[in-house]
Amino acid sequence: MRAQTVLSEIAVGLRRNLTMTIAVVASVAVALTLAGASFVVRAQVESMKGYWYDKAEVNVYFCTKADALTTPRCMNGAATDQQIADVKDALDKMPMVQSSTFVSAAQGYQLWRKMNPDSPLPAVVGPDAIQPSWQVKLKDPTKYDIIRSAFTGMPGVHSVNDQRSVMDNVFLLLNALQTAALLLTGLMLAIALLLIVNAVRVSAHSRRRETGIMRLVGASNLSVQLPFIAEAVVAALLGATLASVFLLAGHYAVIHVIGGRITFFHFVGISAVLTVIPLLIVAGAAMAAGAALITLRKYLRV
């Protein structure tokens, strides 16, 4: 069967069922956009984990005079210089500790004022209310539990906090969004498959006379079915192309519009999107071809 004839049959079929074709293209585009977005979100989460976990620090906070009134473990008053030095000595002996930096109450107060310039609290709260701390960077951030168990309860220590616990909440939200996107992707793919099946059924029914003639002149099953399969694949490829454009536009908008305002957020590069696009194109074409082939076996009877 000549390629020109096949292309002509495809064009006729797409024009004849224009409304159904538009519905197929739109549903496939939405489904594949959601699928691609979920993969990009996954890459974003993994990239953020690698970026921020390496920067995460463990903070060993010390008691202040104010804590003595509210915290039982600080009932003996503010931590002494010796107690602070004892923690430093213990940190230096731990092989998983990469470095440690002491942040005094005054330094912590200045940092707090910079982070909260519009807060009225600095006017009524002085440096004495800020807990001094050791900021500890670990060679392996997953070893946080060792630091926590070693220093929790030591004289003068108020608490041991890991910055990862804050970021884990962000990652939990992103993972929830990814799961929601995958569920919605499954729903949209099911709708797209139903539309492809209906489009092929309508096309086969409207051209049953032509296919009958082809059978009478000895055309093979492949020759009869190929135009219908090709129509579905072309519609799906159009949808995949739209999905690719949406993903690229979305990535551009995130990087150049949002990225410039959120400097602490580490966004994935364009390569993450370019890696997903071929998968979307192959998945769209395979989904359409499979649905069309199964439909033709059931409904194309001459």
From TrEMBL:
<protein>
    <recommendedName>
        <fullName>Cell division protein FtsX</fullName>
    </recommendedName>
</protein>
<dbReference type="InterPro" id="IPR040690">
    <property type="entry name" value="FtsX_ECD"/>
</dbReference>
<feature type="transmembrane region" description="Helical">
    <location>
        <begin position="176"/>
        <end position="200"/>
    </location>
</feature>
<feature type="domain" description="FtsX extracellular">
    <location>
        <begin position="57"/>
        <end position="160"/>
    </location>
</feature>
<keyword id="KW-1003">Cell membrane</keyword>
<dbReference type="InterPro" id="IPR047929">
    <property type="entry name" value="FtsX_actino"/>
</dbReference>
<dbReference type="Pfam" id="PF02687">
    <property type="entry name" value="FtsX"/>
</dbReference>
<dbReference type="InterPro" id="IPR003838">
    <property type="entry name" value="ABC3_permease_C"/>
</dbReference>
<keyword id="KW-0812">Transmembrane</keyword>
<keyword id="KW-0472">Membrane</keyword>
<feature type="transmembrane region" description="Helical">
    <location>
        <begin position="264"/>
        <end position="296"/>
    </location>
</feature>
<comment type="function">
    <text>Part of the ABC transporter FtsEX involved in cellular division.</text>
</comment>
<dbReference type="InterPro" id="IPR004513">
    <property type="entry name" value="FtsX"/>
</dbReference>
<dbReference type="Pfam" id="PF18075">
    <property type="entry name" value="FtsX_ECD"/>
</dbReference>
<keyword id="KW-0132">Cell division</keyword>
<feature type="transmembrane region" description="Helical">
    <location>
        <begin position="21"/>
        <end position="41"/>
    </location>
</feature>
<keyword id="KW-0131">Cell cycle</keyword>
<keyword id="KW-1133">Transmembrane helix</keyword>
<comment type="similarity">
    <text>Belongs to the ABC-4 integral membrane protein family. FtsX subfamily.</text>
</comment>
<feature type="domain" description="ABC3 transporter permease C-terminal">
    <location>
        <begin position="184"/>
        <end position="287"/>
    </location>
</feature>
<comment type="subunit">
    <text>Forms a membrane-associated complex with FtsE.</text>
</comment>
<feature type="transmembrane region" description="Helical">
    <location>
        <begin position="232"/>
        <end position="258"/>
    </location>
</feature>
